[in-house]
Amino acid sequence: MQAAQGPSPLATPDQRDRFLQAMAQGLAQVSVRLHAYAVLPDAVQMLLTPQAAEDLSRFVQGLARRSSRARPAPRVEAPEPVGREAAWAGRFQSALVQPGEWELTSMVWIDRAADRAGLAGASPWRWSSLGVHVGEAPSSAVRGPALAAPESYWHLGNTPFAREAAYRERLAHGWTAELEDALDAALRRGLAVGDEVFLTQVEMETGRRLRPAARGRPRMNIA
Hints:
By secondary structure, the protein is mainly alpha-helical. It has helices at residues 13-27, 53-67, 101-111, 113-116, 130-133, 151-154, 160-173, 177-189, 196-206; strands at residues 32-39, 44-50, 96-97, 192-193.
């Protein structure tokens, strides 16, 4: 979810706290599992597994409605109707993620969102899933939405401590600019990330191209 042009809809801690509450309420009404999230002043990133496509749409649209707010209209000499400006920019962006390594990579990408935005401090960004994944959930009067760890996270270790330590290692070293570019491009263009077998299978099932087209001009076959 990306904010529309203008004041950020989640600029203050209180607004972000209310958004966390809205996330928890929304999850109780749909069949969607939340694996990771980051609530930033002007964007929200989430890794979700819906039971059906309509569940995902209902959940995100419900969040947009709960967090939208009226914006002050500019002063004009003649009276004009004052409407409610949208807080969020159009349709939400989404990308399909292969379970397993790409799933963990996406979790790390989301948990590092506050750091990329220059918002992270000494402690994990409290409006994200980072604290939970590394065993440092911040103390707050507002509880975050319930997380459902995917199998790939459980496979990181046999104990909570081992899983948290392995995830910390991924946060510190299991990251490259190429991975970040791939995820960012897939999200902006509505594509998918995964290995060749996964991408080919999903493209066959959906009838859509879900990977970037090859660069350059298409080849011409000459008989």
